[in-house]
Amino acid sequence: MKSKSETLKTLSGLSDKLERAKTIQDRLSVLVESAGNPNAFARLTGMSVSGLKRYLNGGEPTASKIMQIGDAIGVSPAWLLTGKGPVIDGTPQSESTHEEQSFSVISGSVTHDEMRAVNQEILEKSIEAIDLLCNYKKLKISSKKKAKIIALVYVLSLRGEDVDDSVCYNLLQLAS
């Protein structure tokens, strides 16, 4: 099985395929190829092979699954979801403590201390973007799911990802 760094090296050699990857299924296919095969990709990401195949055949992964794949492979969750922005997530990975791991699903490599140091402007914009889209599109989403999406948008914004309305809407669609 290839390691994360070996998979990223292979991925860099597939730039032409990455540019042609229009759907999340296309992007996942390229990632699977970079890992070697579906079984290797599933082991590397902690997914089941059947779940992976469901996504490759048109099923939509959840926001937490997108973050899990991004963190495991080292690709940007925003790119995986939309195909926009940089492919490789340049956020350095740190040794995580048990306390930091509780944030791992929604925050990627943002540490507990970074989560506590709230950027009020980014948080307000994240909340406003999700609220406006929910109201405009008349989406019915539980408060818990909405809070997780807001946290994800906030963290992606902190990490310098380009989180526009289409990214927010795609996340909301996945959650509804």
Total strand segments: 0
Helix content: 55-70%
What's the N-to-C terminus distance?
Answer: 35 Å
Q: What is the molecular shape? A: globular
Class per helix and strand makeup: mainly alpha
Work out the helix count. Answer: 13
Low-confidence stretches: 91-112
Order of helices and strands: HHHHHHHHHHHHH
Provide the gyration radius in Å.
Answer: 16 Å
Q: In what range is the share of β-strand residues?
A: under 5%
Q: Name the average pLDDT.
A: 77
Largest sheet: none
What does it look like?
This protein is an all-alpha fold and 176 residues long. It has a domain at 99-176. Helices cover 67% and strands 0% of the residues. It has helices spanning 4-12, 15-20, 24-35, 38-45, 49-56, 63-73, 77-82, 98-101, 104-107, 112-116, 120-137, 143-158, 165-175. Helix 11 packs across helix 12 and helix 11 packs across helix 13. The longest helix is centred in the last third of the chain and has 18 residues, at 120-137. The radius of gyration is 16 Å and the shape is globular.
